[in-house]
Amino acid sequence: MTIDPSKISTSITPFAMIDKHSALPREQEILFTMHSVFRIVEITQTPSNSRLWEVQLTITDESDPQLSTLTNHIKEEVQSSNEWYRMGKLMLQVGHFDQAEELYNELLKGASTDSDIAYIYHELGRVKKGQGEYQEAVKFYEKSLDIKRKTLPEDDVSLADTYGNIGAVYDSMGEYSKALEYYEKANKIFEISLPPTHPDLAISYNNIGRVYDNMGEYSKALECFEKAIKIWEISLPKNHPNFAVTYSAFGRVYRGLKEYSKALSYFQISISIREQALPEKHPNRAVTYSDIGDVHRLMGDYERALAFHQKALNIQENVKCNPLERATTYMNLGETYREMKDYTTALTYYQKGLEIREEKLAKTHPDLAVIYHIMSKLYFSTQKYSMAMKYVQQAVEIGQEKLPATHPHLVEYRETFEKIRKKQ
Question: pTM higher than 0.85, yes or no?
Answer without folding.
Answer: no
